[in-house]
């Protein structure tokens, strides 16, 4: 138990250290250039095809004149071209994206480790139990015998509790078999 706690604690500390290293804010106080951009979508104009322009500028400079470079139209058509363009300021948090990806990968990694544990180590730990194996074999034999046995007449009176339980079990098994047959017959009719 102590070894499991030590392993979990070490994993937690390692994960926290990794998160701190990756997510530590840059030395500059402003946002990184990947977090902000201005996107201008300009439709076709005269003989010029439509184009999408992206540039890292501040929100106040997010317009066609600052983003569209080089300007595809001559000087006197710039204003008409820029009126057609739709510019949007976009802001995102790459830090949040990194955190979500790290959490997702951590969960997937933990599940993979658990799966590897179950596949490799669990069969070594669990030895076949000498008591449960004969019980499973007995249950399988009883199921085979009960299905092969003829149904008891409903008028016969059960003398012992065991006979009553067996009778109820047989009726239940017949009902299940009838339900299966009905479901599969209906399925065949519908297909």
List keywords for this structure.
191 residues, single chain
Task: Report what the structure shows.
- Helix 1 runs antiparallel to helix 4.
- The protein starts with a helix and ends with a helix.
- The longest helix is centred in the C-terminal third of the chain and has 30 residues.
- It is elongated.
- By secondary structure, it is mainly α.
- The chain has a three-stranded antiparallel sheet with strand order 2-1-3, covered by helices on one side.
- About 60% of the residues lie in helices and about 10% in strands.
- The protein contains seven helices and three strands.
Count the beta strands: 3
Mean pLDDT: 76
Helicity level? 55-70%
The main sheet orders its strands as 2-1-3
Q: Beta-strand percentage?
A: 5-15%
Give the secondary structure arrangement, pairings included:
Layout: H1 2-23, E1 36-42, E2 51-55, H2 64-67, H3 78-84, E3 86-91, H4 94-120, H5 122-125, H6 132-148, H7 161-190
Antiparallel strand pairs: 1-2, 1-3
Summarize this structure briefly.
The chain is mainly α and 191 residues long.
